[in-house]
Specification:
The structure is a single chain. By secondary structure, the protein is of the alpha/beta class. It is built from 13 helices and twelve strands. The longest helix has 23 residues. 46% of the residues are buried.
Length: 426
């Protein structure tokens, strides 16, 4: 018996090592330069994150980029030519990924022994996420409706929840829409969405948030990419579709470039092998059509939309394609500041304070984003929310999940109360 257990453990260790070996020797560099130079890198390199100039000691934008061994010297020479400063921050990415996986397995085992279906100190696959929201639908049928919205490209179920005390029949109630998991590797976004659902349904503190508001929450928008990032490639960001030219070599689409807002106007997003490939057409991805349909079905009452991403401690609003401001920019900024302030009051001391601002001015130009499209079709308050990553980026250890979900809930609650304050004016 002991020998068989040992064999299983050895096989598991071998699998983990093999899964991450493609990143053996890959290094992460923090690169500093003007925003247009950092933005230009996105078409060629894996930009893990970008740090706003307001938070940079150099006054420039700072980006965390991944360099493979075979391309490192070429890019370091390029940075020197462009007078972009750089510092190595991770020597071997594969070691980081192996350590993360081992910690997650340990946490999930502990949660199962305690009898919990979901805990706030681990990560779960798409099936476990769907099972959890199905469970809430069964336990709270008067408040929670689980919608089987569509199948992903590879045939996985995409589900979302509608939370309402009036079965979505009270047309006077504003609707708040939240999605998570659009980018596959940003694992911490799904627990945030699940915790929001949990606070609205299970650990209810403020009944106003459901008595006077309706909610639509999509906790896992990109299950194919997410599963692929769990089983095969932790750094995978896109969907897994193969419906475009060149998809055999370079499958998948960046879901947050697939919305119909200035689609096709960025050369950087036209290359199928780019990490920010926009796709062959707007809404080509079934996963993104789910978000589109939820928005359009609730457009008459939708007051706020938030797409949860990782990482950077930011609330970003339109217009990301050119840096101009929507007509309600003041309201967008005030609501963003209220959410950011609520989070900052709960944040760890080592966490960066949240930045609120126009996406193009804080970072760089982007096209085809959900934030800009939802604002363009008429939702007043729309944001890209970038969660904290601390020193880990989007590879946030599960030990930080509870901190992130609880502080983010305070921010979402503050945003919901801002929506209610606007409603009382009319």
């Amino acid at each position: 018996m002991a020998r068989s257990v040992l064999c299983v453990l050895l096989l598991a260790v071998a699998f983990v090592h093999g899964k991450h070996e493609k990143y053996e020797g890959h290094q992460l560099y923090r690169v500093s330069g003007p925003s247009h130079e950092i933005g230009a890198l996105e078409a060629h390199l894996d930009i893990i994150s970008a740090t706003p100039a307001a938070r940079s000691t150099t006054g420039n934008l700072e980006a965390l980029v991944r360099l493979a061994p075979e391309e490192k010297q070429k890019w370091l020479q390029y940075f020197n030519t462009k007078e972009m400063t750089y510092t190595k921050v991770i020597d071997n990415l594969a070691d980081i990924l192996r350590n993360e996986e081992a910690m997650i397995k340990q946490r999930k085992y502990a949660a199962k022994r305690s009898g919990k279906s979901i805990s706030w100190d681990s990560y779960y696959n798409s099936e476990e996420i769907n099972n959890y929201i199905d469970q809430l639908g069964e336990e709270f049928p008067d408040k929670v409706t689980v919608i089987n919205a569509a199948l992903s490209y590879e045939g996985r179920q995409i589900k979302y929840v509608r939370i309402s005390t009036s079965r979505f029949e009270d047309l006077r109630k504003p609707v708040i829409i939240i999605d998570a998991g659009v980018h596959a590797r940003e694992w911490v976004t799904a627990p945030v969405a699940l915790y929001i659902i949990h606070q609205l349904v299970v650990d209810v503190v403020d009944n106003n948030l459901t008595e006077r508001l309706d909610w639509v929450i999509i906790p896992m928008a990109n299950p194919d990419g997410y599963e692929y990032s769990i089983t095969t490639d932790r750094m995978w960001r896109k969907t897994r579709s193969k419906a475009h030219e060149g998809s055999d070599e370079c499958p998948g689409v960046d879901g947050n470039r697939n919305f119909d807002h200035y689609f096709g106007t960025s050369a950087a997003s036209a290359n199928p092998c780019s990490i920010i490939y926009e796709g062959p057409a707007p809404f080509s991805e079934p996963e993104i059509r789910v978000i589109r349909d939820v928005v359009l079905q609730n457009l008459d009452r939708a007051a706020m939309y938030i797409s949860v991403h990782s990482f950077g401690n930011m609330f970003l609003y339109a217009w990301g394609n050119n840096g101009s401001l929507p007509s309600n920019a003041l309201s967008l900024h005030v609501a963003g500041v209220r959410m950011a302030t609520a989070i900052d009051e709960m944040a760890l001391e080592k966490a960066d304070r949240y930045i609120v601002g126009n996406a193009a001015n804080v970072l760089y130009y982007t096209t085809g984003t959900s934030r800009d499209w939802t604002r363009a079709v008429g939702i007043p308050l729309t944001y890209t929310l970038e969660l904290p990553g601390y020193e880990y980026g989007f590879l946030v250890p599960p030990t930080y999940v509870e901190q992130i979900v609880t502080e983010t809930w305070d921010g979402i609650s503050a945003g919901a109360h801002y929506v209610l304050s606007l409603q009382s004016l009319y």
